[in-house]
Structure formats: structure tokens, C-alpha cells
What we know:
The protein is an alpha+beta fold. The chain contains five helices and 14 strands. Helices cover 34% and strands 24% of the residues. The strands form four sheets. Strands 6, 7, 8, 10, 11 and 13 form a six-stranded mixed β-sheet that branches. Strand 7 and strand 8 form a beta hairpin.
Amino acid sequence: IRMFKLITRLLVVLAFSWAGSASAIPITDTVTLDGKEWAQPADFTGISWNTIFAVCGAGPCIGNLIVPFRFKYEMDGWTWASNAQVQSLFNTFTGRNDTAPTLFTEAYSEWAPAVLAVFDSSFSPGFGSDYVAGWTSSLDAYGRGYLPFVRDDNGDRPDLGGGDDEVSTKRTNFVFQQFESAGAWFVRDAKPVPTPATLALFGLALACMWITRRKRGAKVSLF
């Protein structure tokens, strides 16, 4: 047993050493909705509220964020979402106008599978349930961090009272603890995708610039 603990500690040290020395990578697995781009909360599973706060404060992130046993992520340009921002995201799926913190359940909903179709599951405790959950930058009156989540029951076990899907911005946990089954919610403004018309105008402008320079070059060469 002592040898097993020693090996475990050594692996943890090596993992953190690797994460600290490895180059940071950009966040590419994202979900874009209503002009906002969301990172996958599951990519930050196991990280503590305090660890995120050291890089992102109460909002805009500056620097890199090391996620244990995963990667070092480039966080510049991302914002650690508030509980209210995540509630607005959830409202997009539910069609409701709830205000955080709140809890809503619905049997065999359409919105829970829709959320889990675009956001990776943070964890699956069994009985057909899937969760996507994560820390926000918001704290309650007792200094606990909010952990909003969506649970898709899948309706696989109605004999156990299944079928009730759940969306919540009420759950909290103490910030000094790591929450192994949750990640974090990060958001930024989505970059506009050029339309075909915009690309055509851009190409025309480049062509005009090229023709103008050619004409100027021709005039100079006459003297």
C-alpha cells in the first residue's frame, strides 16, 4: 500500500511538471450561440474555483490555465462567465426567462438532450443520466462558488423515478475545494464569419489597389 501511494504521488508530480512545462494550447472545441462562443466545461473538469480565480479574477482571463491531467490552455480573450450569463445560456435552450439562481425540472424535456448534444458531458453517474456542469465566477452570500449544471435523465430508468431533467444555477460548493465532477464556464464574443458578399467586396478592393499601383508605376517609368 505504501508503495502504491508513493507511485501515485510520483505520477501526480510528473503530471503537474509536464503541464507546467508544456506549451499552452488555444481552446478550439467550442459552442457558438447567439453571438457568444462557449468553451466546453468538461475540458476543465477537476479544477478548483481558486485556481481559476488566480488567472481570471472575477471575469476577463489573462495568461494560461493549467488543468490537472489535461492541458495548459491559453485563456487570453476569454471571460470566466458569471452565474447570470450561464443562466441566460440555459434560457436559450429552455425558452424560459429565469433569473439566477434558480432550479427548473421537466419530465422528458427537449432542452436537456439539446444541451448535451452540443456540450460534452462532465460526468455520467449512471442510470442513464448525463451532466454538464462547471464553476462560474459568482459567489453566494456565504462565499461559496456557483456550479450551474444541466442534467439529462434520458428516461432510461422510470422505475427509479427517472425522466425528470434538471437545469440549475442554484448549486454551490466551497471555493477551496476541487469539484472532481465539474469544469468551468468560459465565454467570449464570437468572431464574425465573412459572408460571400463581404469576401467579394474585399477581393474587389484588393484588385483596385493592385490596378492603382500598376498605373502609378507606369507613370513613374515614363520619366
